[in-house]
User: Fold these one by one.
Assistant:
Number 1:
Amino acid sequence: MTASTDFLAQLNPSQRHAVEHFCGPLLVVAGAGSGKTRALTYRIANLVLTHRVDPENILAVTFTNKAAREMKERIDVLFAEQEAQANYGKPLSALSARDLTQLKSKIYKTLTKHLWIGTFHALCARILRFDIEKYQHPNGYRWTRSFSIFDESDAQSLVKAIVTQALNLDDKKFNPRSVRYAISNAKNQNLTPDDFEREQPNYRGRVIADVYRRYQQSLAENNALDFDDLILVPVHLFQQNEQVLGYWHKRFRHILVDEYQDTNRTQYDLIRLLVTNGEAIDRFNDWQHRSVFVVGDADQSIYSFRAADFTILMNFQDDFGDRLPDDDTRTMVKLEENYRSTANILEVANHLIENNTERIDKVLRATRGEGESIFCYRADDETAEADFIVAQIRNLEFQHPELRWSDFAILYRTNAQSRAFEEVLTRYSIPYQVVGGLRFYDRREIKDVLAYLRVIANPADSVSLKRVINVPKRGVGKSTLEKLENAAQTLGGVPLWEILTDETSVKTLAGRSAKGVIAFTQLIKTYRDRLDSAKGSEILQDLLDASGYVEALKTEGTDEAYERLGNVQELYNAILQFEEENEETSLLAFLANASLASDLDSVDESGNMVSLMTLHSSKGLEFPVVFLVGLEQGLFPNFRSLEDPAATEEERRLCYVGITRAKERLFISYARERRLYGSREPASPSLFLAELPTDHITTNVGLGLPQRMTTPMRETRRKQAAAAKPGSGAHEFDWNVGDQVVHNAFGSGEVTHIFGAGNKICLAIKFPGLGRKIIDPKLSTLQRL
Ligand code: ATP
Ligand code: MG
């Protein structure tokens, strides 16, 4: 073994095979915690260190920015370890502080910095900063390389403005969030506003089509793209311009994708174009020089609501492969050992996921000891659930000195569930962070300052311009702004900036307003002139003073104003850090980074805090102690999924993701009654509880878990379900709307709705005085009268 491959010893033989496989397509499919991400990370290091691949030729796609950062750090260390051996003949830990600093700086400059590792969005934004000016939109819209990225809240504001102002409609009927969702869906199915309109059978649909058309036009007028465009535009650009595609195809010889099961069609098209240069795979003959390496787990596919499609993972070998019928191993590697969780935790996870029908069976063996048994807690209500969990956290932290607060995670289905936990954690002064709360970049003052920077970088960004032209107050009130906007419209939708800088237009304004407008445009122009020569951090620092923004906050003088001031200071720190860490340090690059920062990025790793997050946010992460809470029908699995077996399977995958985040200890809990979204309702236990293996679980209700089945019972049920012809329905499943029933806890009621079929059936039952409950007849004692 040469010095440069020492680190391969930290992998098992299958991982090692995946890492050492040099060119061609390779798919790694494996269960949770089997070291897929580790294999991907080590593969990048190995490409550079062993095969001497230029880091510029590598493109790695991660699911979050945070994962990208962690991967870069890990690779940096792998590089450093090898270089320490090669240059100094000693391990990294034996280097003097000076040598270490020197080595790290050299490695960063020559290697790590040139790797393109990031999310689809971040990588696409980077490609577009080179090439967007070559893109031909069918309607003739143009973008320049200083385009703004509108994040979800910007996009929704734009939709709202179109609904309420341009179309004069009620935004309660046309809720901006759901209209934006419909538009996003249409875009991701590659439907133009015209295509979309043709598919609409009713008034509402046609209105949405109209909003979509205006929205797209408005984005273009603002020289802006939304998150969907960030991926769609490169795909269209690559399809229409051979030279552009050829350049990136040549550049990215080695492409790696983590969490491939959550890739959607557009993202897949992008990868495929980059790999094949748009050629058909049977005519493509460049595999000697390139690779495409994807890792994933179909059982962890949890983003179908964002059009992710795990059949893309299943089709990988046919899509890219010169697959031989009898030899899968050239294009596929399976990892079968789990390094993350104790055997008990793994057993529970494996058992649960076997209830899904849409899956490929796979092996996942524990490599760690049996561990503690899983504890399942039934609480009276959500407050008791939070009390119990916080008591566990306090106990464990007290009894196990090696555990820190940051070793605990509470995972829930919906954000609204965090409140009860926050209250109890606060009461005991336990530090915590809610991942997925208000993003740093969504705070008002941060949006204001970023809007200034965006106007400086992109004069056409009228949305940002309107946000700050009168912040702090410059006498440019609402009516002045309307007047200016009308003028812009009359001139055929020119950017507001052009009107503001047009002397004749400004002269028509009242004295005070005109003065304000001139002061504002002068300010922006000063910095725009410095865009090429000054760093973003310098521009920001001067701007904060010159704009009067900081002054206004100081004058306000309230606690809140000082907090905002602190956040603005933090933004300055963020830009400094960005300039230190990145190859591309322009203000444009920083602004893209800020628009794409996800809520997960605000996780403070240095902080020693309990993490609270949704199950979706927990993907790819791991914690020594995990609390999986709120396992109740209608909550988890959630209400909407009860009617749809495929959606229930996705909820089950989400549960599998949650369980497999745990390394040492897992607690599962549910409440008998819950106040959620205002009303207090009795709750019934999640159907997933009955699917867990009893012999690995301890409960606070003895074996009295409602209708919990022992393993043999479960087997019988599975066999019955498998034998039952679809629709024939065994006697116990034969329910009808209107049936009168008696439930052991809620008393008598009437069946009002039936969800699902066969063994997935759930009933909506109206209980006089209690309201409607969703009941799984297999889990409750239910008698038909
Ligand atoms: P997920 O499906 O949840 O994304 P994964 O398959 O990507 O999981 P990793 O996160 O790469 O798994 O690895 C899980 C844990 O196991 C990590 O702590 C990792 O460091 C450790 N691990 C992976 N491979 C090995 C190995 N060969 N030896 C020891 N530990 C390993
Ligand atoms: Mg992973």
Number 2:
Amino acid sequence: RVYLDYNASTPVDERVLECMIDVYRNHIGNADSRTHQFGEDTRSIVELARKQVADLLGVNADEVFFTSGATESNNIAIQGLREYAENSGKNHIVTTAIEHKAVLETLKQLEKEGFMVDFIDPDQFGRVKPEDVLNKVTERTLVVSVMHVNNETGMIQPVQEIGEELSKRGILFHVDATQSCGKLVEEIKNLKYNMLAFSAHKLQGPQGVGVLVLRKKSYKLPPVKAIMYGGQQERGIRPGTIPVALVAGCGKACELAVTEYQSNLEQANQIKEELINILRESGLSYHINGDQTYCVPGTLNVCIEGVSSEALMISSKQFCGISNGSACTSKSYSPSYVLSAMGIPVEQIESSVRISWGHGVDQDEVLNGFRALINVAKQMN
Ligand code: PLP
């Protein structure tokens, strides 16, 4: 069996696991307990992890806040601006039509509450144009929220250009970096943003922990407020006992990303080339969704003409884990909103699958699994 759904979740790196087991075995105590050494020990583990995250992103440790994942981080970054919106009279938000649901649904809720939200469509290759985003910004704009890399197509969005311009204009900018963190290591360091979100499980860390960055260096601290009530953990931004082992695993994953990302990228690129070769030699009619010049190395979204992605996934379920990015949580099938926003016709969307891979994969295993998948597709064609 081969797992090719890394954009959904990655396996935990063995060294991350060891680090977490060590915490579970040897370090008890609430990191916010100040009355004994146990608490101080776990606190120092949390602070080391904060530093590891900060080093990966090129930010200060005190700009890093741990959460339960990117969904929560995105929610805090956006919903946490409610009070500021009320005080400043700013009620307009700009985003893209291809954001993850964690951002889209949050903004749709704000829209119901009276906020004006512009959802910018990408071009046919799955990239939004910076000017399309920037042209919507007015003095009433509260925040602009754009993802760094799209989870379905792997397309890198022009957050560099957008961030540069917004910082000049003093407009708050939030970046959902869930699919780029640990992959576009240098690029992230050079971005200009006020808030940034990601989940550890997309970069070989554990599920259930994520990060929200609130930048203060060269910006005023964004006026983000907690969206839950409780204790003063994470300086009040995210109340609730800190899951020390998860946080330690998140930090370790970030540390590994710093030291290993270059070799990860090279391998991921090689795999993509080979996958495209297999497609080319298969005799099937296919086309790749998105423009590969702007795509992360570990993602391939491909339409195999005449082959239903649903049927292909069902037929290959036992030996291959892929995805088609559709809302399969509901009973009724709905075609990918990301590919729809790119203007791709429904029949092509229904034949599109996403293959994603990353650090630690066995190249031969991936290629053999993909060959087997293509053989199934050929039988269905
Ligand atoms: N944002 C993007 C771009 C994602 O790909 C995901 C997960 O797929 C999320 C946010 C949400 O992450 P989580 O489910 O870990 O909260």
